[in-house]
Design a protein that fits this description.
Elements (H helix, E strand, L loop, with lengths): L7 H8 L5 E5 L2 H15 L9 E3 H10 L6 E2 L2 H22 L17 H10 L3 H17 L12 H19 L2 E2 L14 E5 L7 H8 L5 E4 L11 E5 H17 L7 E5 L2 H14 L4 E3 L3 E2 L8 H10 L4 H8 L11 H11 L6 E3 L2 E3 L1 H7 L8 H19 L4 H15 L7 H23 L8 H9 L3 E2 L8 E5 L10 E4 L4 H4 L2 E2 L7 H6 L5 E2 L1 H10 L3 E9 L2 E2 L15 H5 L2 H9 L10 H13 L17 H10 L1 E2 L2 E4 L1 H9 L1 H9 L14 H22 L8 H13 L13 H7 L1 H18 L4 E13 L2 E12 L6 E7 L21 H11 L12 E6 L4 E6 L19 H20 L10 H5 L4 H4 L11
Parallel strand pairs: 1-2, 1-5, 3-4, 5-6, 7-18, 8-14, 8-15, 9-14, 15-18, 21-23, 24-25
Antiparallel strand pairs: 10-13, 11-12, 16-17, 18-19, 20-21, 22-23, 23-24, 25-26
Helix pairs in contact: 4-5, 9-10, 11-12, 11-15, 12-13, 15-16, 16-17, 26-27, 28-29, 29-31
Length: 935
């Protein structure tokens, strides 16, 4: 017995034998699904596919009889025409100073009109309705019934729209095309009988409704009122909502319902799909996402946009990296692509530039004098030239046939298509199909040929929707609205919220709101119609979560008076929940998913006692290789070498110190940079060292009155500051340094000002020199940026430059366990006072400051009484700093003992947040630790 709320099945059963009966549905998906369902309903072995069509196809068929000899215009032709219009507009502006359009494309952007072409193409189908509405509004204004502020024709936007409409109309007439949305003649009876289902779900149905009243061969079939109560499942959050839906679907599958008979619809599928995918995969539920995405967004289809970006950016590093590291594209010539990216990082190939009217290729310039040159760089240069030439030829192709020729040359010389996955190969083949279609259209309409053919093709791929080839079987997952009125036996509609499930139809949405009001254009809320259509099959299950992935939501008003709790029976049989409860002491789960069984078996395999782990035990004498590394890298004549950075890193995490300092695992650069904070700091240090050496040589002491002259010295020094640093190699390095001279001088000027304020008359005596000191079994070593000495009383001021923010003084105050967080100042004080190499051996350091170049300020850590720092408060004076020095000594002993015991264990009290931000987390893997599973 048919569901009284289902209008489709009875009509198909009644009309299927009549070959003239055509069934029209709101979407292609609904039409194709009902075609399959009709075979079951009728028992027929075959039915003609053209009898089950979507609304858009119906519009073309119904109108075609009235415009004999013409074909419906396609979306691609609209885009080509809009692009040609934008180019003609730019040409008119250039030649005459007056563009064709003044409002739709603002005059100041006429040369960039192609940016507006896609938008103009989208509004072309709506211009027929716009013209009708404008004429009616003008008539009302003339009759005095509706007072209008001004004649619509006097408005610049209206003039542009009218111009576009009539120019486009002339093109259609000339090429024997028609715009289906513009046609409003009485429909001719061609012998077919159309049954239009769910017209209330069709956005532009109202524009055609008057035609149907005089067309007896068209029958409208709306959704009957469903008298059953409106129910909806409520959840606290979306994760619970998805989990409940998955459990309910699983129960249906266990009960024998085929997965092909189940569907899920979600308003914000882009956000929800990763969570749905995960939930279904964890529970072994077969599914397929029935939604498309742009061809140009697929990994393989992205290659055309990436090539275009490479050429248009002058082969900038970011564009080259995105192209070469696209794993969906298999390149020829082995590891050339990775080597070229590494070369770009090593030589700072950020971007090409223009000089004296000539564009210089950053890569070609870098190959002339490569940093850390490799003997194979000449082969890499040949490969780069091949890539550059092929890409340039492809992007500069004059027409679509030339694009095809250049693409196959690019593919032949650079790609290994045989290694591409079948799915990626299908995507690439579809891209070439679109190119073939453009070739045919270019031959039909040569006047529409775009000047930049490849750019048009690449942009088109960003708009063409592609749905992957379906694998048979599985729960169908749709975007909201698409599957309304489909014949699934059970349909789950998630996120029935006011924000996401509301369906609002707007006529002529490209107009401003005041113009829409003048034209009597009102918004239509079709939400209730869609909910009722979904309910029509009697199998829809609606749900709503108060807290979604993007914020809090309110339930849609359609369900304001109806509610039902979630089905607890399915949730009670959740194996994952049962496993969690079992670990907490409950009884064993009744059943497990295959993935659970596999995971437990894997855990049992890896959790067997494997003996030694350096994360939990010291190496002691268990590894000759580790002992050899320590002897080589960290000892001198049996003494453990200690730097302040060793102490900071080892004190935070011994494992990180081992991986970084001893194992030598480096964090590789992934981008080509010219001037990061570290590089800028090197320049600052280099300039300041040379500057204060010159001050010491020329004046003996810092003379505050000569501050401006000192700054001019600094400018001369900064010009060649990068010459000794490998980090600044590359064609653009020196030009960038030149452009940063002002910034460098601003920072140095701040330091000079502070010296003039606090250290005038001091000798800049000790400048970036290394000191060492044997302390028990350790050998302390460090480089002090500057020590300035007062010749009057020999007072010493240790200064450490910071290009960024200075270290917080709190890090030098011992905590409850007598630990400190930074060791720089204590190390420098100890070296200056006690190193045999120090010119100040035996003297007492009363002052130790950080100099923040960015902030232009001294930050005192240790402060005597002879220099007033105003409101600046140090950590303590020299006597009060003794607890910090003692904490430093304890850390030196701890480090020396740990190195001798080969102790690189991970601290038990180390927080997860610290590990999560560590560069070595993927090696240590502490952040991935999990609790044991079931035995």
């Amino acid at each position: 017995m048919d569901n009284p709320a289902d209008p489709v099945r009875p009509l198909i059963r009644e009309q299927w034998r009549n070959p003239a009966s055509v069934f029209v549905f709101p979407s292609d998906i609904a039409a194709s699904l009902w075609l399959g369902e009709a075979l079951e309903i009728t028992g027929a072995s075959t039915l003609a596919a053209e009898r089950f069509i979507a609304w858009d196809r119906f519009k073309e068929e119904a109108v075609r009889a009235e415009v004999e000899g013409k074909s419906p215009v396609s979306a691609v032709v609209r885009k080509l025409w809009a692009r040609a219009l934008a180019e003609a507009n730019a040409e008119a502006a250039e030649k005459t100073g007056t563009p064709l359009l003044a409002s739709l494309i603002p005059a100041e952007y006429s040369s960039e009109g192609n940016l507006f072409a896609s938008w103009i193409a989208r509004i072309l189908p709506q211009l027929g309705l716009w013209e009708i509405k404008q004429a009616r509004a003008l008539e009302r204004g003339r009759s005095g019934r509706i007072p209008l502020g001004s004649d619509p024709s006097s408005d610049g936007e209206n003039r542009d729209l009218s111009f576009v409409k009539h120019r486009y109309e002339a093109f259609l007439e000339r090429e024997k095309l028609f715009e289906p949305s513009w046609q409003r003649p009485p429909l001719k009876d061609g012998g077919k009988r159309y049954f239009i289902f769910f017209p209330e779900a069709v956005e532009d149905f109202g524009e055609y409704a008057p035609l149907f009243s005089a067309s007896p061969f068209i029958t409208l079939v709306s959704q009957p009122k469903n008298e059953s109560p409106r129910t909806i499942r409520f959840f606290e959050n979306t994760r619970e909502e998805i989990r409940d839906a998955a459990l309910s679907i699983e129960a249906l599958l266990i009960g024998g319902l085929p997965s092909e008979k189940i569907a899920v619809s979600v308003p914000d599928l882009e956000t929800a799909s990763p969570y749905l995918r995960r939930e279904f995969e964890l529970r072994g539920i077969p599914f397929e996402l029935r939604t498309g995405e742009p061809l140009g967004s697929r990994p393989a289809g992205r290659i055309f946009r990436l090539i275009n970006e490479c050429v248009s950016s002058g082969f900038s590093f970011s564009a080259m990296k995105a192209l070469l590291l696209n794993r969906a594209i298999p390149w020829k010539h082995g590891g050339m692509r990775e080597r070229l990216v590494e070369f770009g990082i090593r030589n700072h190939c950020v971007a090409s530039w223009s000089e004296n009217g000539e564009t210089l290729d950053i890569w070609a310039e870098a190959f002339k004098t490569p940093n850390k040159a490799d003997p194979g760089d000449w082969l890499l240069l040949d490969w780069y030239r091949l890539l550059r030439n092929r890409a340039t030829s492809l992007c500069s192709a004059k027409d679509f046939p030339e694009i095809r020729r250049q693409w196959f040359a690019f593919r032949r010389d650079l790609l290994n298509i045989e290694e591409m996955s079948p799915a990626d190969n299908d995507v690439l083949a579809r891209c070439i199909e679109e190119l073939s279609s453009l070739e045919r259209l270019g031959a039909l309409y040569p006047e529409l040929a775009p000047r930049d053919a490849f750019s048009f093709f690449a942009n088109l791929l960003e708009e063409v929707q592609y749905v992957s080839q379906r694998s048979p079987g599985g729960v169908s997952v749709f975007p909201w609205r698409v599957a309304a009125g489909t014949p699934f036996e059970r349909h789950f509609i998630l996120d029935a919220s006011q924000d996401n499930a509301t369906v609002l139809y707007r006529q002529l949405p490209f107009l401003r709101e005041d113009k829409r009001l003048d034209l009597f254009l009102m918004d239509t809320d079709a939400s209730a119609s869609f909910f009722e259509i979904y309910r029509g099959q009697g199998t829809a299950v609606f749900s709503f979560a108060e807290r979604s992935f993007t914020g809090y939501r309110t339930v849609h008003g359609h369900f304001a008076n109806g509610a039902a709790l979630a089905d607890e029976s399915a949730r009670a049989d959740d194996p994952y929940e049962a496993e969690r409860l079992f670990r907490a002491g409950a009884s064993a789960p009744r059943r497990l998913y295959p993935i659970q069984k596999k995971s437990i078996a894997e855990w049992n395999r890896v959790s067997r006692n494997r003996g030694f782990s350096f994360l939990k035990e010291a190496f002691e004498n268990q590894s000759e290789a580790v002992s050899g590394l320590i002897d080589e890298k960290k000892t001198t004549d049996g003494r453990v070498r200690v730097s302040q950075s060793d102490l900071s890193e080892y004190g935070l995490c011994r494992t990180k110190w081992f991986l970084n300092r001893l194992a030598g695992i480096e964090v590789s650069d992934s981008d080509a940079e010219l001037m990061n904070d570290r590089n800028l700091g090197l320049v600052y240090h280099s300039v300041l060292k040379d500057l204060y050496e010159k001050i010491r040589t020329e004046d003996g002491v810092f003379v505050g009155e000569r501050r401006n002259e000192y700054l001019s010295w600094a400018e001369n020094i900064a010009q060649t500051a990068a010459s000794g640093h490998a980090e600044f190699n590359g064609p653009l390095a020196q030009p960038i340094i030149d452009s940063l001279i002002r910034r460098i001088l601003e920072g140095i000027a701040k330091i000079l000002d502070k010296d003039a304020e606090f250290l005038a008359g001091f000798v800049p005596e000790f400048l970036e020199e290394r000191l060492t000191l044997e302390q028990k079994g350790a050998l302390l070593n460090g480089v002090i940026d500057r020590i300035s000495r007062d010749p009057a009383d020999n007072a010493l001021v240790i200064i450490d430059y910071k290009s960024g923010k200075a270290v917080s003084g709190k890090r030098y105050i011992p905590d409850e366990e007598n630990r400190i967080g930074d060791f720089q100042i204590p190390m420098y004080i100890r070296l200056a006072e006690q190193s045999p190499e120090s010119p100040y051996l035996g003297q007492r350091v009363e002052y130790a400051w950080f100099a923040s170049i960015r902030d232009g300020a001294f930050k005192p850590i240790v402060q005597g009484e002879g220099i007033s720092m105003g409101r600046l408060r140090p950590v303590s004076d020299r006597d009060g700093f003794e607890p910090t020095m003692e904490a430093f000594d304890r850390m030196v002993d701890f480090f020396e003992d740990g190195i001798r015991r080969r102790d690189f264990t991970r601290p038990e009290d180390l927080s997860w947040a610290v590990c999560q931000s560590c560069d070595y987390r993927r090696v240590c893997r502490a952040v991935y630790s999990v609790a044991p599973g079931l035995d």
